[in-house]
Amino acid sequence: MTKRIYNGKLALALMAAVMLTGGCKKFLDRQPLAATVDDIQVGALEGKVLGLYGAIRNSANDPYCGDGFENIPWIGMNGFRSDDAEIVADPGASAWHQTYDNFQYTKDDWGAGLYWDKHYVFAGLCNDALDEAAKNNYTDAASIINIAEAKFFRAYAYFDLVRTFGDVPKIDFKINDPKDGQVAKSPAADIWALIQKDLTEAAGALPLVWEPKYAGRLTSGAAKTFLAKVMLYQQQWEASLALSKDVIASAQYALYKPYYKIFKTAGELCSESIFEIQAYKAAGDGNTYWSRLGQTQGYRGSGTWDLGWGWNTPTDSLVASYEAGDARKAATILYSGQSDGGSETGGYGLTVPASASAKYWNKKVYNQYSDYLAAGQGTPNNEAQNTWVNHRVFRYADILLMAAEAANEIGGAANQADATTWVNMVRDRADLGPVTFTTQAAMRNIIKHERRVEFAMEFERFFDLVRWGDAQSKLPGYLPRNKYYPIPTSAITANPKLVQNPDWE
Question: Is the full-model pTM beyond 0.90?
Answer without folding.
Answer: yes
